[in-house]
Design a protein that fits this description.
Elements: H1 2-34, H2 36-53, H3 55-58, E1 66-71, E2 84-88, H4 101-107, E3 112-116, H5 123-133, E4 143-148, H6 150-163, E5 177-183, H7 196-205, H8 217-220, H9 225-229, H10 235-242, E6 251-256, H11 263-275, H12 281-300, H13 307-310, E7 319-321, H14 341-353
Parallel strand pairs: 2-3, 2-4, 4-5, 5-6, 6-7
Antiparallel strand pairs: 1-3
Helix pairs in contact: 5-6, 11-12
Length: about 350
């Protein structure tokens, strides 16, 4: 019996390791859910300490972050000079979100730049990085900022805190902001931010060879502060939504609806009154079912951002397209039709350009 006990003790000890890890994760999750401000401060502290202890490993990849010219146009004087376009991606974006939009903008004659940033860090830090790079943009013409998902929050934070703050002078010099287009931006937050770890895996597994991979690859972009900023009711969103949007900067919102009633369902709803006779009961049932379906679609939104989260004070109602969060502006397969948000973006730009 003693021999058997000695033989099985190492195995018992090994079983305790995953149990201890699961317990630690459960305790951390429980604590973090109830203390988001403290969790954010802790994540920022960890990020800063890693920067200080491992500066080379934590340094941004050369040429990846910052302002990147994608399409440059030299005016020849034959047409009015069009505003410059600056694209700002969202959380844990591997870099291909703009691949369908950029060629269309180039064909329409627009000069296109892209802002890339460590997208797991706090949204305010990414905004500050944009402000630091803003003077690098040529100031010979105004800029239209287009943001997808969290990129729209960075744009709003930049405009209201740096370039066009209410009641005070601009805190950064450079090109004027001609307009803003937000695509699938969670202005009131998104519960999907809690699944940031899976987005992080997609970001680094899908990244091209120009991005250096290492054990620090995930930490280099931040330690998950953005996840906390994106949660509904976060301190960042409360502060952002309390700031007035400047009347001098036009803004448009575009959102996605993942669901729409199939033709068979529409036909069934229309047939209910006839099936139930001439009483008032039939139309009530049809209206109730139709309302239930509509509320389901509004709550689901584009699968990541509910329709109610698109709105914020001072912005017009969103333009809605039937597409997923990424599918609004990016094809899943090359054979897919043009994403539905792209024609709306071009139409808005043409309107603002006076063409």
């Amino acid at each position: 019996m003693n021999v058997k006990s000695v033989r099985f003790r190492p195995r018992s000890a090994l079983l305790l390791i995953p149990i201890a890890l699961l317990f630690a994760v459960a305790v951390w999750t429980w604590w973090a859910e109830g203390h988001p401000r403290e969790e954010r401060r802790l994540r920022v502290l960890v990020h800063d300490r890693l920067d200080a202890w491992f500066p080379q490993a934590m340094a941004p990849v050369d040429g990846w972050h910052g302002l990147i010219p994608r399409i440059q146009v030299v005016p020849d004087g034959s047409e009015p000079v069009l505003p410059r376009i600056l694209l700002v991606h969202g959380l844990d974006e591997p870099g291909d979100i703009w691949d369908d939009l950029i060629p269309v903008l180039g064909s329409a004659g627009f000069e296109v730049w892209e802002f890339r940033y460590p997208n797991d860090q706090g949204v305010d830090r990414s905004t500050d990085l944009l402000a630091a790079h803003w003077p690098e943009l040529p100031s010979d013409r105004p800029v239209v900022l287009i943001g997808h998902s969290m990129g729209g929050l960075i744009i709003r934070d930049f405009v209201t805190r740096w370039r066009n703050p209410a009641g005070i002078s601009a805190r950064v010099e450079g090109a004027a902001v001609h307009g803003v287009i937000l695509v699938g931006t969670p202005n009131q937050g998104s519960e999907w931010a809690r699944l940031r770890i899976w987005l992080e895996l997609r970001d680094h597994l899908a990244a091209g060879p120009e991005r250096r991979f290492s054990l620090f690859a995930g930490l280099r972009d931040g330690t998950g502060e953005a996840k906390i900023d994106l949660r509904p009711g976060s301190a960042f969103l409360e502060d952002l939504n309390a700031r007035p949007w400047p009347e001098s900067v036009p803004i448009r919102l575009i959102g996605g609806l993942l669901t729409e009633p199939p033709e068979s369902m529409v036909a069934s709803l229309e047939a209910i009154p006839a099936e139930l006779g001439s009483s008032d009961f039939g139309p009530d049932v049809a209206a109730t079912l139709e309302g239930w379906w509509s509320s389901l679609g509004e709550g689901l939104g584009d699968g990541v951002v509910p329709l109610a989260s698109l709105r914020f004070p001072g912005a017009p109602p969103p333009i809605l397209v039937h597409a997923s969060h990424r599918g609004m502006i990016a094809r899943l397969f090359p054979s897919d039709p043009e994403p539905e948000a792209i024609p709306h973006i071009v139409a808005i730009l043409e309107e603002w350009s006076g063409r």
